[in-house]
């Protein structure tokens, strides 16, 4: 057997370097191309890289870059988010207790003229965290309204939100926690129609037992979240709400819960700052109104 005209006996006599040179020469001849310059050049033969090879290498690199770009574009197309489907998740009715500084907001309730309201910011956070998909279809109710610039320390709202638990677990929890109460028709407003704060599907009042039980429900919600893996609604919403609006706690409530008509009491406190107030003149003005009946038409 021979390699490039050399017998086996002749090859065995060659050194390692001679064999390497011989193999390189044989490879260049079989490919029919000029060899690439190496640290050790074959003896008696120049193997400089030609300009044609350099051009071919550049064009190959350009082709590789183009294929990488197209591959990256394909990956971007594949990563398009799928539409969110709320029906794939369990849902439950909860109550949220809020505290907010209303100094820079136009009141509590949503308004068509502006979104700068407490409810407007709350709905934005609920939509961002995908706890709801439509503010008009989450059975929302509020414990009361506050005007522009008015703050709250314990405002309560009720709504139906997405849950991490399965619907079967939620239904079993509700059945064991909330006894069935007599359903009453929605309360009537002064205009004779259903009150606007009542949930769309109607609902009843909390029974006395449910009201008593509701005192411990926020603690129950916290333990249930830790034990059963429910969403931490407080953390989720506070991460998306402005600093002036905070969720203090949440609680599971029955499906018939209304934050307005289920309230047992409301407390309003008015604070008058003494800065630059003439208290003596204010007292004189108050004394005048007490003596004039027409200044008190509501009494």
TrEMBL record:
Keywords: Isomerase
One GO BP: tRNA pseudouridine synthesis
Gene Ontology molecular functions: pseudouridine synthase activity; RNA binding
One of the record's GO cellular component terms: nucleus
UniProt entry tagged with the keyword Isomerase: yes
Top-level division of the source organism's lineage: Eukaryota
Biased composition (Basic and acidic residues): 181-199
PANTHER family associated with the record: PSEUDOURIDYLATE SYNTHASE, TRNA PSEUDOURIDINE(38_39) SYNTHASE
Name of the protein described by the UniProt record: tRNA pseudouridine synthase
UniProt organism field: Chrysotila carterae
